Structures are given as C-alpha cells and as structure tokens.
Amino acid sequence: MPQLRLDTPVQFLSGIGPKRGEALERLGVVTAQDLLLHLPHRYLDASSVTPLAKARVGDDVACVGTVTAKGILPTRKGLRIFHAVLKDDSGVLECAWPGQPFLDRSISEGQVLLVVGPIRFYHGRQMAPRETIVLSDVDDLAVGGVVLPVYPATEGLSHKQIRAIIAKHLDALIPLVPDILPERLRERFALPALGDAVRAVHRPTSIKDAEAGRRRLAVDELLDLQLMLSRARYIARQGQRGTEFVVHRTLTTALRESLPWELTADQKQAIREIFDDMTKPERMHRLLMGDVGTGKTVVALCAMLLALENGYQAALMAPTELLAEQHMRSLTALLAPLGIVPELLVGKLTVADKRAARARLVSGETRIVVGTHALVQEGVAFDRLGLVVIDEQHRFGVEQRAALMGKGEAPDVLLLTATPIPRSLALTRYGDLDVSVLKLKPPGRGTIRTAVRTGGHRERVFDFVHQTALQGGQVYIVLPVIEESERADLRAAETMAKTLTAQWPDVSVGLVHGRLKAPERDAVMRGFRDGSIKVLVATTVIEVGIDVPNATVMVIEHPERFGLAQLHQLRGRVGRGEAESHCILLPNSDDVPERLRAFSQTDDGFKIAELDLEERRQGDLLGARQSGGVDFKIARFPDDTDLLGEARALAQAILADDPTLVKKANKPLRERAVTRYPRGEVLFRVG
Ligand code: ADP
Ligand code: MG
Questions:
Q1: Looking at the domain assignment, is residue 627 inside a domain?
Q2: What is d(CA 132, CA 106) in angstroms, rounded to the nearest whole number?
Q3: What is the structure's pLDDT at 471?
Q4: N or C: which end of the chain has fewer CB within 10 A?
Q5: Is the same domain home to 359 and 470?
C-alpha cells in the first residue's frame, strides 16, 4: 500500500476496490479528500428520530423501526398499496406506500427502515413515507446520545456501506488535513480547525457540533470559489486588450432584415449591451442568461456577425457533439439568406475532414465555426478569432474560459446559459462576468400545460403516452434512478423501459441514462431526434439542450424527488414546436405537495429559481445540488448566505498582499482550490 495521501484515488483505500470505487465516483467521490468531504445529508439521533408511538397525525417526522409485517392491499380504485408495520421500543406504526407494489420485492420482515414523511389518519395513524431507506437487517442503530450520520447513497453502494467506509478511514485521513488558513485569519473569523470540522461532520457528538463543522467546511468551499473567481478576473483583465469592433450594420442588419419575426424587447436590449461591450477596447466577458426558448441563439448570432463584419472569425462551443450539431443546424438556417456557411468541427469527423476543416480555419476561409471543446485544444488555430460564444456555461466552468483566453488572440467571450439563477447567487457564481437577461419568450410558440396526476390516473396517463406515440408523436418519460437498488422506493428507468417494451410491441422505446458511454448515449438521442424512437425513457441526462420539436409530452415519475429548478429544466425539453405540449407529473403519493402545485402553475424560470433556493434548506432532493446552476457540495442556500460575505472577506484578506496567489505561503490554498475545481489548474497555468 503506497503512502496514504489526500489525492489517493479512493479505490486504492482498503475495503474499496474498483467496483465500489466506480459507485463512489457516481457520487462525485474520486479521491480520499472527496471521501472526507462526502457529507451526511441527515443525522439520526434520539432527538431527531420520533419514537413510533409519538408520531402524531399532522406531523412530518423521521422514524426508525423493524418491519414486523408487510403486504400489498388493493384498493377499490384499482391502486395497489404496499403496507408495512414498523415496531420499536415505544410501539408500532403502520406505513403505506400507494402505487408502489414493487416495494414488496425489496422490503422484508426483520429489516430496519428509516422512513420520513407525514402522518395522516386512515383507520388509525399511518405514515405515507416520501423517503424510505433500508438501514440494514440488524443495524448498530444509534440510540440515546450517539448521532448516526446518513450519507447520500447510490446504485451499488448503500448509505450504510458508505458510513462504514468513512468510519474506517477517518482516523487515518484526518491528520492529513492541514489547516491551510493562516492562524490569524482563523482567529479573526472564529473558525474551528479544519481537522476538527471534518471529524465533527462524520462523528459528531451532537447535531449542533455537526452543523458547526459543516459551516467551517462550507466557508472553505466558498473561499476556494472566491479565489478562483478573482484569479479568473485577474486573467481576464490583464495584458491583452480586446478588439474595438465597429458596428458597420452590414451583416448584422442583413440578419435582422432576413428574420421572419421581430426581435423581442429583451433580445434587443441584450444585443445593445453586447454591442456596447464589443465596441469598447476592453475584452467582453458577458453571460447571456435566459430560459429555454427565450431566443438566445439569434442574439449570439448577432454578436458573431458583428465580429464578421469587422473581418474577424467567430466560434461557438457546445458541451456535447449532439448540441454542436443542433447549433450547426439552426445557424445554417439563419445564415442561409446571408450566404454564409458555418463549419462544424467535432471529434467524430474523419482525420482528413478534421485536417481540412482546420486548414479552412487557419486560412480564414471559414468565418463561423461550431464545435465542442475540441475547439480550444491544441492544434486548432484561427486566422483572426474575434468572438467566442460558449453555450451552457456551467458545464464548461470558470476554468475553460481561461483556457480560451490563453489562445494567443484576445477574443471577446459571450457565455450562454439556460439556467436562471437568483441575483444573490449570480454574483457569487459569476462574479467575474457581466450579465444580460432574456425574460420574455417570443410569441407564437406552443404552450406547455403542466398537470399533476396521482396514482389512480396512472393507467390513463400511460394510455395517453401510448396513443401519442402511435399517432407519430414523441414522449419523454423521466425517472429519478437508473436501476432498482437500495432506493427501493423509487421507480427505475431500466425497469420502466423493459416494461414498456414488452407492453407496447407497436412502439419503439429507447433508454438513456448517465451510465451509458457517450457514443451509445448519442446514438439513442439521435434515434429520438430522427423520430425512429418514439418513447424515450431517461434519467435527468436529457436535461440540457436537447431540442426535439416533435416531442410534445413529458411524463415525470417521482417529481417529488427533484428540485424545482431541475423539474423546470426537464420541462423545457417539450414545448419547442408549435403544437401544445404536456408535462405530466406523477408523484408517488396522493397528497400532492404544495411545491408541485406551485410548479405546475408557473413557467417563470426566475421565479422557480427563487422557490428552488428556498426549499434547498431541506437538502435531500435528488440532484438538487446540480440544479439552479449552483453546484456547491457543502454550502447550502439560503441558509449559508451569511457565509458568502465571510468567504469574500477571507479571500480579500488573503489576496491583499498576494493578489495573484503566487506566494509560496499560499501554495496550499492554491492547490486546494485547484483540487476542488479540478480543471482550475488551467486558471493557474495561463496568464
Ligand atoms: P434558446 O436557445 O434560448 O432556448 P432558441 O434561440 O433556440 O432559444 O430559440 C427558440 C426558438 O424561438 C427558435 O425556433 C427561434 O427561431 C425562435 N425565436 C427566437 N427569437 C424569436 C422571436 N423574437 N420571435 C419569434 N421566434 C423567435
Ligand atoms: Mg439554445
């Protein structure tokens, strides 16, 4: 065993190995340090677990008990309800999971369950769990004083296994955690030592102790981001000046005159802001933020044409080949009246085609190029690159922006994101950018009706899906997990795809999820785009960017498991054509949560972003971290809003006498920021 270090890949830690290592990687845990920072999302102790006898009607509680009886009860409406009776020292409680008969397969007598949910009255007290975790058959359950951490789990790795792994390595790893904050700052901001904080979150003596530890870790996470942002700002502002473009109104005006519609007021305003930036001597670093369908493409194209009419080239980067192809199609159509043909440069081209494309870029023959991040790689050179547009900014991140700026030229940069985020966070997240916003949607597009349907309507919903597919329409069915596993209470994509394939021989059903390799995934997505696949069963991988106007129905299973911002992103996949679209939420219980009702009644991405932030304090939604464009692992908003100021003050104190973070004493800080944001390396290499 080589010496243990914080950057040791977890799979080399004893008791892990490649298979569990892979499962951990799905949780974002790659190194020993990641393991230390994989925090419990919940703690159980005598005070947070309600004794079964004390759970009162109307309460929303967490309970732990042993299954003493179980079975499926049919109802008159044809709904099949899974029932179990839990028992602890205080008494018993009945639990009912409507519409989830499949639970009967994975829950057995003698198991200890953690259930969380509301207590209602139905022939007596009954819980309808919204979360069900099998703790174990015989778990060393914490009672009285001991606090038990519960970790986010994944397919193939239960929270209990994760707890055991962390418990096993904690003592060896903690001494490796240096407190990289200078002592004087730690004192000034009254922060506990880092090693103590790590111990407190994994092995707390009380919930309060755990929370104090978590906040110290959150401060560090936010501090690292502040350091990265200030570095990005430094690189952006230094040395190279930008180009002072002149608005000649040749191509830009030609485009506007060729459009079959008027630009919206928001689009005009954004174009004004972009042109203002581009005509100034400083380089532009602007983010264009607008919900799906607000018309970002044409705004970006105006900016590109301003570069072109000044004799420069423009590039558009997308996060995947599929999205690059999609942009290629829309730009080709928009540019046709102007006689400009864009070039596509993606990995799947043959070597010869790539070479030819690169030659046309260097010679300047190609004026607009669309591609993936392959565009910023070595070997791609431009004649005169004036503007880079980057789509779905959060997938590229601060780091790759810097890589672009290292291209020798000084192109202006315009970033596009379809994830609206609240202003307070925009400042943190995009502290180094100016922001333009598109709020209005252009008129004349199909509306999306959002409906919430409960158990008794399932059959009708799936009939509707079947009919839609038979009539040539296309449907997404979204599920929260890939396979049935420890999260026994959730319907899974693989099972759904299998069932539908067997049930509907007359409809082609596809399956796509995050564990497929990129080429496989792209093949399925192309099949759906080209219409050979009618029903696409998917996990949330379809969130970003896919544009299939013929897809008019989306069914979301277990919407209660998703953050609102994420639901909104998902919903944006339909309503892209002229026809009316439907988004149907199928929550797991008959008591429809208010948040889903609220969601079904608004389509305003910014409003949803605020609601999403508000509910994030609950913190146990699947994927909530990724949603809203805010992917902090530890910090939670709005709870930790006060820590933002603290992190900023810390960053200022550190940068005051080392503005570019190059001093030897600050090396550990630099290194940690880079490890936390892996591609951040680029930031400290260029410029
Ligand atoms: P986004 O990238 O913001 O999701 P797109 O740029 O793809 O949106 O635009 C969505 C659709 O709306 C496209 O079909 C586009 O042609 C159309 N569109 C854009 N702007 C307008 C407008 N001002 N009026 C009518 N249709 C528009
Ligand atoms: Mg777009």
A1: no
A2: 11
A3: 95
A4: N
A5: no
- Ligand 1 neighbour 442 (Cβ under 6 A): yes
What pLDDT, on the 0 to 100 scale, is given for residue 632? 75
Q: How far is the CA of 259 from the centre of ligand 1 (A)?
A: 11
pTM for the structure as a whole: 0.66
- Rounded distance between C-alpha atoms, residue 504 and residue 496, angstroms: 12
* Residue 295 CA, ligand 1 centroid: distance in Å: 3
CA of 325 to the centre of ligand 1 (A): 17
Domain of 73, CATH number, reads 2.40.50.140
Percent of the chain residues past pLDDT 70, beyond the cut:
87
Out of 539, 569, 603, pick the residue that ends a domain: 603
**Ligand 1 atom at minimal distance to the Cα of residue 547:** 7
> Nearest C-alpha to atom 15 of ligand 1 is from which residue?
295
Q: Is residue 24 domain-shared with residue 59, that is, in the same domain?
A: no
Contact partners, residue 37, CB within 8 Å, separation at least 6: 217, 633, 634
Q: Indicate whether 464 and 549 sit together in one domain.
A: yes
65 pocket-lining for ligand 1 (C-beta < 6 Å): no
CB-ligand 1 contact for 253 (6 Å cutoff): no
How many domains would you assign to the chain?
4
Least confident residue range of 28-42, 119-133, 339-353, 608-622: 608-622
Whether residues 464 and 595 share a domain: the answer is yes
Nearest C-alpha neighbor of 156 from the set 484, 455, 614, 406? 484
Of 298, 414, 439, 569, best ligand 1 pocket probe by most atoms within 8 Å of the beta carbon: 298
Q: Are strands 148-150 and 42-44 parallel, antiparallel or unpaired?
A: antiparallel
Secondary structure class of 621 (helix, strand, coil): coil
CATH number at residue 270: 3.40.50.300
Domain annotation covers residue 12: yes
pLDDT at 258: 96
Q: Are 278 and 245 in contact (CB under 8 A)?
A: yes
Q: Which two tokens stand for residue 589?
A: 């219980």
CA–CA separation, 545 and 327 (whole Å): 10
Look up residue 194 and give its two tokens.
């880092």
What confidence category does residue 678 fall into, taking pLDDT thresholds of 50, 70 and 90? low
Contact 511, 524 (CB under 8 A): yes
Residues 337, 456 within the same domain: no
Q: What is the pLDDT of residue 158?
A: 78
Q: Is the pLDDT of residue 237 over 90?
A: no
Q: Is the CB of 293 under 6 A from ligand 1?
A: yes
Give residue 91's domain range.
50-140
